[in-house]
Amino acid sequence: MVKRTLTPIICMIALSFILFPFFWGIRTSLAERFDSKFIPTHWTFSHYQAIIARPELLYYLRNSAVVSFSSIAITLIVALLGGYALARMRFRGRQFGALLLILPLLPPVAILVPLLSYFQKLTLYNTLAAVIVANVVFNIPLSVWMVRNFILGIPVEMEEAARIDGCSRWGVLFRMVLPNMGPGIVAVAVFVFINAWNNYLYSFALTSSQSLRVLPQGILSFLGSWGTYWGGLSAAGMMVLLPPVILFLFFQKWFIAGIFGQQLK
After folding, report:
1. Cβ pair 163, 172 in contact under 8 A
2. Cα 213 to Cα 51: distance, rounded to the nearest angstrom
3. What is the Cα 127 distance to its own chain's centre?
4. How far is Cα of residue 80 from the mean position of the Cα atoms in its chain?
5. pLDDT per residue over 39-55, tens digit each?
6. Residues 102-125, buried b or exposed e (16+ Cβ, 10 A)?
7. How far apart are CA 117 and CA 186, in angstroms?
């Protein structure tokens, strides 16, 4: 009885802690500048207009889009090939595939210094290509595992029948497997997009030009120039937050299925 009473109360308290920063960010971005009331007297979009009027915002937005979509394209190709190999082929070391789940837990900053040195030798430092490669490298392990989970859900009998009819391994992959794993492709794309779009560290460490900043890095630079203009800073934060949240809400079922190895019905 006590457990049944306390559980919803604890859940409500935890939910309040999680959602309150989002509520306060939206409230601050829509309130007038010196309105300190919990619920503002007047609502305004002037902070959003001030952000959109900044010309450098377009550069930051373009860089984030280039990094995110390029990372998705490259990661999908590698993850498809790696996931298919883990799901269908037998080779030495295959039993260690679960280690892919551990790799994303490693802090990227731990290998950032050698990565920085490596990119300097390749003359990739201070280019968007370096940021794209870093995003691809750190997103590949979990992406491969997600693709593997979706491929395991496809009946292997279809592929065996195709092989008996003379279809090559590549033909099976592109004609049988790929058309049947649309949700898996979408799940991986959403996963990579969220990580690449929100990432600040790689751009900060691997570029030095202001014109190569991505959106999170650019928004943080406003902290120095805008001081305590909390309305503008909150509006900028909400604009960065919106694309990943919308994507996740639309594709959350496929995303969760890919993470936990569930099969969609």
Report:
1. yes
2. 16
3. 20
4. 18
5. 877 888 888 888 788 78
6. eeeeeebeeebeebeeebeeeebb
7. 34
